[in-house]
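Board work, copied verbatim: DUF2057 domain-containing protein
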Amino acid sequence: MQCIGFLFIGRFDLLLRAFICILVFLCSSTVANGYELSVDSGIEILYVNGQKADNSLTFDSEYLQLVLRYSGRLKSGGKMEYYATYPYLVTLTFQGQKDINSKAFIKLISNRYDKINAENERKKPVFDIQTSEDVSVEQKILPSTVEVFPYMDVGSLVKSYNIDNAIFFSDNLKKIDMVNNSDAIS
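↓ predict structure ↓
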């Protein structure tokens, strides 16, 4: 009789563990707010909301700032040639959306060397950004402050740009709107 009781308790323990595993799986598979970014080959995300890009960065904000650069081979006539763009500052703004579940795919506007070179030299957008939601997208070359090796320290350029444009992010990478209220100061 004690053997049967032990088997029953053992099966109950297995059922309880299975139930807990299923419950944990269901809870973790619910839709979370945030962004899913995919980039084409050769496109590197350097900074996200003022922080050096890292695979483990998570963010949930109505404002997304990316610094992108392409380096790779493009078609030039019958051969492939290496090309590297300037770093581009890309901002995506989700107006009035509380729950943000967006996918963005970033690719070059062309795979032709002459087309990308011409647009890059004219400081025009070279990235095609497709999103799953209605998003305002702004794209421009990251402004440089020096002429010799202008993009040697991209991190300080991003920081300087954000300070000059009153763009600040909290610890969880959300944009903080700064309000200049001179009436509040007595």
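The CA atoms of residues 33 and 99 lie 6 Å apart.
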